[in-house]
């Protein structure tokens, strides 16, 4: 399918989510929807992909990540390329053509014809033509979305000098157009969902390997390697974020980087890891015992977190406010901890005083897509609440069909909170401190799945990865007997 021009018959009617044939069709459809919503009559838009960031003091670069807005609209992710839009002319992709020296060191790169196929764009030009394109629009308002590094690194984009072009950058327009793209990105199209399912399948393979290979005496780092190798074998291009593996007390650190510390019998292991495919993230957490069974309070708390999570997943339906799901989960955590005698008081009274946030300090989850914490998580005009337990809620909007969100409640024993004198004083009556003080090395439990919201109810993309007490214990027993 070829690119449809900016003055197409698109009427702004509600997108029906029709199945696109392939990546090119999907990207063309996204561009059409964005242009229709932008309603520009003059000026131009630049959507740079970004350039690799140098590592200071070396001749190396950080791993390159294309800007999600570029990847979303262009359907390609080549460093140094720029997607442009002009309401009279439509869309053009300017892509770098490597010189002989670059070809010697890093290869030929994709030919422009391949980029045209992949993006569905009729006009794909060498980056060296971008300067002239901008020159012809001198004095017109320019909106820059995507990566704004073009202003500082114009020469690397093939534009001689940014300042010499005297661009009239309209920052307000840029923010508006970017917000429109963030909104469009919330509901995933069929192509995006196919990639997210692939990412989830790779993630499943990795977690399954972790569940099978974890042993007492093994290090967090070694388990990370076993998990990630399966991601890559299953087609992941990279991990969607730094893999989190925490054994024993380390599981209480929300974003713990795996270390050489060895797992010990009787501990829990928390693994929060996701593969990335085609730029799309998967984000899954499982917590399991080093041995074959959850013991004592581990069992009770695991059952509590799982019940809270399953209830929240069941509630993830169109029209439901994500914040209400979070608040309901907070109430469930408070009730569960009170039932176990760790908290004292009615669930409502505990949540009113934020007592549950001592143990569940983060948000229920976030939007997922081209970024692990995907764009558009908060509705325009909504400000994050500064209350403990709400401060880190990364999604605040009514759910709609096509949204993918994570649901990831947790219960942790975090020294930084539980040893804080002011918090201990504030929650003196609400917490059984004698018991809690004996649990400071417990670690934590988090269970996280990626949930697609549909009119027919929630669909977990990560449902294949075991999480029931019975399934996990069976897997662990089999693994340890083998
Ligand atoms: Mn997450």
Describe it.
The chain is built from 15 helices and 17 strands. The protein is of the alpha+beta class. Helix 1 (23-38) crosses helix 4 (112-119), helix 1 packs across helix 6 and helix 7 crosses helix 8. The chain starts with 22 loop residues before the first helix and ends with a helix. The protein has two domains: 23-186, Creatinase/prolidase N-terminal domain (Creatine Amidinohydrolase, Chain A, domain 1, 3-Layer(aba) Sandwich); 190-481, Alpha-Beta Complex (Creatine Amidinohydrolase). A six-stranded mixed beta sheet has the order 4-3-2-1-5-6. Bound molecules: manganese (II) ion. Manganese (II) ion is lined by residues 283, 366, 406, 408, 448.
Please write out the topology.
Elements: H1 23-38, E1 44-48, H2 68-74, E2 82-86, E3 90-95, H3 100-106, H4 112-119, E4 124-126, H5 130-135, E5 141-144, E6 168-169, H6 171-186, H7 190-213, H8 220-233, E7 238-239, E8 244-247, E9 268-273, E10 275-277, E11 280-281, E12 284-289, H9 297-314, H10 322-339, H11 347-352, E13 404-407, E14 410-412, H12 415-418, H13 421-426, H14 433-437, E15 444-446, E16 449-452, E17 459-460, H15 469-481
Parallel strand pairs: 1-5, 3-4, 5-6
Antiparallel strand pairs: 1-2, 2-3, 7-10, 8-9, 9-12, 10-11, 13-16, 14-15, 16-17
The structure holds manganese (II) ion.
């Amino acid at each position: 399918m070829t690119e449809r021009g900016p003055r197409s018959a698109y009427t702004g009617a509600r997108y029906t989510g029709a199945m696109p044939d392939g990546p090119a069709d999907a990207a063309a459809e996204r561009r059409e929807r964005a242009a229709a919503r932008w309603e520009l009559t003059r000026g131009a838009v630049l959507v740079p992909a970004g350039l690799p960031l140098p590592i200071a003091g070396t001749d190396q670069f950080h791993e390159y990540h294309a800007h999600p807005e570029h990847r979303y609209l262009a359907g390609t992710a080549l460093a140094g390329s720029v997607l442009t839009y002009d309401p009279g002319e439509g869309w053009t992709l300017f892509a770098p053509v490597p010189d002989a020296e670059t070809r010697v060191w890093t290869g030929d790169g994709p030919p422009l014809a391949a980029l045209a196929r992949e993006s569905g764009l009729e006009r794909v030009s060498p980056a060296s033509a971008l300067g002239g394109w901008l020159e012809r629009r001198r004095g017109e308002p320019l909106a820059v979305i995507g990566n704004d590094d073009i202003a500082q690194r114009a020469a690397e984009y093939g534009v001689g000098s940014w300042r010499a072009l005297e661009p009239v950058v309209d920052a307000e327009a840029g923010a508006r157009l970017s917000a429109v793209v963030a909104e469009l990105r919330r509901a995933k199209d069929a192509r995006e969902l196919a990639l997210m399912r692939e990412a989830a399948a790779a993630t499943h393979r990795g977690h399954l390997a972790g569940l099978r290979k974890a042993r007492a005496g093994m290090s967090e780092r070694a388990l990370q390697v076993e998990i990630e190798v399966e991601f890559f074998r299953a087609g992941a291009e990279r991990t969607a974020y730094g893999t989190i593996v925490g054994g024993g007390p380390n599981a209480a650190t929300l974003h713990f980087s795996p270390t050489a510390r060895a797992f010990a019998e009787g501990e829990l292991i928390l693994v929060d890891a996701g593969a990335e495919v085609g730029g799309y993230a998967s984000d899954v957490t499982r917590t399991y015992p080093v041995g074959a069974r959850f013991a004592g309070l581990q069992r009770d708390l695991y059952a509590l977190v799982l019940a809270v999570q399953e209830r929240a997943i069941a509630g993830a339906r169109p029209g439901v406010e994500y914040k209400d799901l979070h608040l309901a989960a907070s109430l469930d955590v408070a009730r569960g901890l009170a039932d176990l005698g760790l908290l004292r008081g009615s669930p409502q009274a505990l949540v009113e005083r934020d007592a549950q946030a001592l143990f569940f300090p983060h948000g229920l989850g976030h939007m997922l897509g081209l970024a692990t914490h995907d764009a558009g998580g908060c509705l325009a005009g909504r400000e994050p609440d500064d209350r403990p337990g709400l401060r880190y809620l990364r999604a605040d909007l009514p759910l709609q069909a096509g949204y993918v969100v994570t649901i990831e409640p947790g219960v942790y024993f975090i020294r930084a909170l539980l040893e804080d004198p002011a918090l201990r004083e504030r929650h003196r009556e609400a917490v059984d401190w004698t018991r809690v003080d004996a649990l400071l090395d417990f670690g934590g439990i988090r269970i996280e799945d990626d949930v697609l919201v549909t009119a027919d109810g929630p669909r977990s993309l990560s449902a294949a990865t075991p999480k029931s007490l019975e399934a996990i214990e069976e897997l662990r027993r089999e693994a340890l007997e083998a």
